[in-house]
Amino acid sequence: MFTLHLFSNWKWTGPAEHALNLCLGLKKRGHRVVFASGRPPRKDLTSTNQKAQALGIDTLELRLRKHFNLLDNPRDLWALARYIKVSRPDVIHTHMTNDHLLAGIVAKMASPKIPVLRTSYEGEGLRPGLRNRFLLWVLTSGLITVSERARQRDIAQFGFPEERLWKIEVGVDTGRFNPTVARPRLRESWGIRPEEITVGIAARIQWHRRFDIFLEAFRLASREMPKLRAVIIGRGTNMVPVAVEPARKMGLNGKVVFPGYKEGDEYVEALASLDIKVFLVPGTDGSCRAVREAMAMGLPVIAARRGMLPEIVIHGETGLVIDDTPENLSRAIIELASDGSLRRRMGEASRHRAVEKFSLEMEVKEVEAVYKALLGVKEVEQVRSA
């Protein structure tokens, strides 16, 4: 099967990494895959297309702006129509709003028999409005959502047919994020002693990510448990006023570690160096893939009762789901930090859930089944709304 994937953004985001993981998985299963992402504004910037090429995935050069553009959209329409006419992909898989629009128009005009599939990474469902209504009803053969909450909302808000809508869990590489393989090597470099308990948050350091709640909760918890250490993994232009300065004012110097942004193997080792993971606000990746990776690493997760987080973290089993006030978060941190057997039990349950529900291999097979459904193969109805 030949699938063309479009991603209208040049930046390396959570959804971009997810789209490439899917493409790589499909390629490993013997399918032909071509990927196209946006063009960066400068040549010294690394695009998602370049990341794809490094993985051995064939790429197509388009402009693919994140937002509608009067100059670049017509150029992409012409280039896409020409490419599709010659190459004839079986399915066009879109991942963002603008590439969804472009693919839908081209498929309608040039090749109406080629199905256009959209994956929405909005954990709360697509935003209501005329644009999304037009995209879904006129230009979409099928829609994949990443949560049951999003699936139900898209049906209710847009009246989108249930038989053309699938909920598929976002996959993570459970072989790479594996507590039996990764080692907590970074703890020593962070100045953390073996007996200390680390509670960590990994996110872009921005105002809306509720770092004030995390720091105040940690301050309250550390009064009762002096051996607690907080680790904030990430970066951001407002890092100092958002997190560093508030931690200093709270008297938390020496108790809060800022190791910076981590990627690749260092990110895996950073997760392995935590005892508890906290996640309060979904970011640009509404699928909350960072939570799934932490669970694959065998970490108990304290999650806010927001968006799709309660679908991922099972309260009392793989972690704790709370209303995210400082007091609630502090109590949750103390509950897990004071009970090693509870942390181990929840961590093991997290790992088991990740392997059973969030594996990349399972996601690839289910997406493959959706392709077959769109092309008229009837053996795959069991994946719908699983």
Structure commentary:
This protein is of the alpha/beta class and 386 residues long. It folds into two domains: 2-171 and 359-383, Rossmann fold, CATH 3.40.50.2000; 186-357, Rossmann fold. It is built from 15 helices and 13 strands. It has helices spanning 14-28, 48-54, 72-87, 97-109, 130-139, 148-158, 186-189, 211-224, 239-249, 264-272, 289-296, 309-312, 326-337, 340-357, 360-374, and strands at 2-7, 32-37, 58-59, 91-94, 116-120, 142-145, 165-167, 197-202, 228-233, 256-260, 276-279, 301-304, 319-322. The strands form two sheets. The protein has a seven-stranded parallel β-sheet with strand order 3-2-1-4-5-6-7, with helices on both faces. A six-stranded parallel β-sheet has the order 10-9-8-11-12-13, with helices on both faces. Helix 8 links the parallel strand 8 (197-202) and strand 9. Helix 4 (97-109) packs parallel to helix 5 (130-139).
Fill in the keyword field for this structure:
386 residues, alpha/beta, Rossmann fold, 15 helices, 13 strands, 43% helix
Write the layout of secondary structure elements.
Layout (H helix, E strand, L loop, with lengths): L1 E6 L6 H15 L3 E6 L10 H7 L3 E2 L12 H16 L3 E4 L2 H13 L6 E5 L9 H10 L2 E4 L2 H11 L6 E3 L18 H4 L7 E6 L8 H14 L3 E6 L5 H11 L6 E5 L3 H9 L3 E4 L9 H8 L4 E4 L4 H4 L6 E4 L3 H12 L2 H18 L2 H15 L12
Parallel strand pairs: 1-2, 1-4, 2-3, 4-5, 5-6, 6-7, 8-9, 8-11, 9-10, 11-12, 12-13
Helix pairs in contact: 1-15, 3-4, 4-5, 8-13, 11-14
Q: What does this entry show, briefly?
A:
The protein is an alpha/beta fold. It contains 15 helices and 13 strands.
